[in-house]
């Protein structure tokens, strides 16, 4: 995916948005420009607590920690302050941003999945039920962290935070004069006290649109806790009870008329919106502290996604002919572990999925490098023959376990027996935004079958078999690297490249059928250590030209612009930019299929998510987990990372296999609010 950036904003919505009428802290955006969303509350609390944990770790290690911790923290500030050694690396906030986004998107989905659940929103005085939702969820988060399943932990945590935050908007906790969170909501062993009984009247009619004094004085004087009733279908509620309020709440049209929600500034009790939002932030910080105490500092930071590196994920064919491939996977993984242990580039987790036929797995997912070493060291090559293997089943298992935006490396020399899983695997690649690179050995240059000296047919990948892997690599933004077993060690440098800090893709294209092309890409002063990868057959040639007109041809292994190494169908160029910014050109001559991918290191990057508008009482936009319909509109939420000054002027969707380009209109979202 290309980085296209050149309006001071951190978040952009592509395609003009129409705000919904909602009756909750709005999940992602607001239309009035003054209200606070679940997204803002969640991110603010995460940044505060993460910074506090990093401060405490620094103090225990005798290091300075100079960051001021308040509600104005940015992701970049916290990432930088928490990075104990960034002198030799470029700082990336992508993984931190992505983890936070997972939590606020799961927070937002509560307003879709649990729209009519009183417990999930503390409506209808369901305080015990709401507390059960919170405490059960927190227990699940702690269990997920213990199992090192941080993806599930983040998703559950976001949903728990939604319910906790709604308490301060939907109850009269703020109206009772409380200026601290109700910590009994996160402690299952404490009794919820002073709850208004079902027969206790709590509200009177509002004075027109003025609902400032609609809670009965006796309720306030006795400190009774109540919340508004809410129903979009029926006006029925117990006699004298408060309603939530808002145009979609039918109970608010029945005496006592009006509501008490503080979801936004324009709500029935919107004059207390800021107080409710601030308490919701403090309560979320308390909940995060409860989790931190239970799981420990380092696992807590992993749950928050505070990492400079991606996972190291291998999917390995273990049949008899793969002994060389297994040995190389061991060598490169051990080298990575030993060289990066204790550094910011140490992989955040390790994933291993072996496969053959008929077996797949077991899956190893761990943050312990020694456990990974022991598991991969156990692998041996056995069995196989001329039988296709369950490669896509192994890849599917890895994709379901790996965090978003992972890079997965598949080692095999055999066709996929389970090619029917191609569409399923493609969907997983798209939803997880993971890159898949195939290390293929033994690809035949024609449709001939390979025979040994005794005439026995041996395992080999035909061109049609290899095309399946090429298609999946293309769909993911990865590569299909085809080498001999003897050259495999030269190709695995790609794995080490991927684990460098802050790697971004600057340009990528797949051309099939082959044709001559002149590609251009931009080098800016924010990008360092460019590397180009070209795959294609031996007839392919290319020329790299800098912004000042200096050129180097593909037959120059060491020239003025790059050093070039070749392994199988892969040419790898370590580009020397020498601070030459501007438009560079990459010209390719080939009538056979090929691919070009150019990466670099930069703190500036972006993350994107496809979102969809949903109507109803509790939502505006939520994460869309399926593909947009062909021919229709799609809405992307694009978040820039790593800079407060980089501006977005264009966002386009490009088809990497053809000239198709779809342009979108941009709407800026400042400070987590939708700007009209």
TrEMBL record:
Look up the coiled coil feature and give its residue ranges. none
Q: Which residues form the signal peptide?
A: 1-24
Read off the Pfam families from this record. Answer: GBD_Hemicentin, VWA7_N, VWA_4
Q: Please give the Gene3D superfamilies that the UniProt record associates with this protein.
A: von Willebrand factor, type A domain
InterPro entries with a match to the protein in the record = GBD_Hemicentin/VWA7, HMCN1-like_VWA, VWA7, VWA7_N, vWFA_dom_sf
Output the superkingdom of the source species.
Eukaryota
Q: Where in the cell is it found?
A: Secreted
Q: Which residues form the Hemicentin/VWA7 galactose-binding domain?
A: 504-603
> Cellular component per GO?
extracellular region
Q: Which residues form the VWA7 N-terminal domain?
A: 74-301
Manganese in keyword set: no
Residue ranges constituting the Hemicentin-1-like von Willebrand factor A domain according to the UniProt record: 312-485
Key words of the record? Glycoprotein, Secreted, Signal
This protein's name: von Willebrand factor A domain-containing protein 7-like
